[in-house]
Design a protein that fits this description.
The chain is α/β, with parallel strands linked by helices and 385 residues long. It has two domains: 5-156, VC0802-like (2-Layer Sandwich); 178-217 and 225-384, 3-Layer(aba) Sandwich (Rossmann fold). The protein has helices at residues 16-26, 44-53, 72-81, 108-127, 178-188, 205-215, 236-247, 264-276, 317-331, 344-347, 379-384, and strands at 5-10, 29-33, 37-42, 59-68, 93-101, 132-133, 140-147, 150-156, 195-198, 257-261, 283-287, 301-305, 335-341, 356-362, 365-374.
Length: 385
Amino acid sequence: MEKNFKMIAKTMFGLEEVLATELRKLGASKVEIGTRNVAFEGDKGFMYKANLCCRTAIKVLKPVTSFNVFTEADIYKKVYAFPWENYMDVDGSLAVDATVFSEKFTHSQYIALKTKDAIVDRFRDKEGRRPDVDLDHPTLRVNIHIDRNICTLSLDSSGQSLHKRGYKVANTMAPINEVLAAGMIMLAGWNGQCDLLDPMCGSGTILTEAAMIACNIPPNLNRDEFSFENWPDFDVDLYELIENAALKKIRESNYSIQGFDIEADVVDKAKENIESANLKEFIKVHHQDFFESKKETERPLFIIFNPPYDERIQIDAEKLYASIGTTLKHQYPGTQAWMITSNMEALKNVGLRPSKRIKLYNGKLEAKFVRYDMYEGSKKTKKNN
């Protein structure tokens, strides 16, 4: 029976609890929450499952050794001493990523370069030649993490960031990250239990992630590859067993998932992405101005959206956010509305009191994910019922 080993799943700030819950539900043991990461244990099959099924993981790393370092020479010497030939062939290719939190070591790219040099030098000294460096599709992707004087070397089992699901074929301006979109939906508590609307849907990322959540579709089903597929111990039969088990858990969705966008060409791009994800039967996208729309059903409705707010999109933010508040208040009773923004000044113009604020990051921008409850009738009446 395959032994369990420690892994680290990296995520975005504010999504650590969501990812920990995902991992526990998938069957991980010894789950420990960090900052932008969650540590856990599982076997090789679980590593495959975590990559395939985790919606809020960016990477799944497998630590292979850890040691103390005090100088750059320490790093080179100890990386060189590790038996890399057990993990890749000299005919393979290599890429190194570095993360550094240390007063002694401050330049992550330089640390990555020293690590790469030590690995290829070991191969050259042992076999007379060295593996190539390939930053895009390496045979082995290595992560070096230095926290003060503790250095951890890990194998990156994911490869490209797991937010690159493989379904996005058409991009719009300022698209939201797929991991962030899934995390927002899960933080909001929506899992397919009622209708959902993204009234400013852009490239359709929130809609696509919502449909995959509602139907329990593995988020990374459309990816071309994971790095672990290039490892010497890759078990294709085990991976197919994991994949087939996940596919059997897909379910039907009986609720409406809709998107609006005011730009016709953006609607076309959203439809392309949704079709690429094989989800067009579950999602409807309309060329519609949200501010001229209203709730069309008596049923409960979740609204989740990412309105324009950064420097790439020229808008009158104060006017836009005031219109959002007016539309929600007058046109969307019986609705729980969530939106993410990094424009805190514009947020004040919504004119509604948020019932919840969650700190997230959209790229490098600090953002707030806020909830507004639109009651049928007055809030006072609702409370007294």
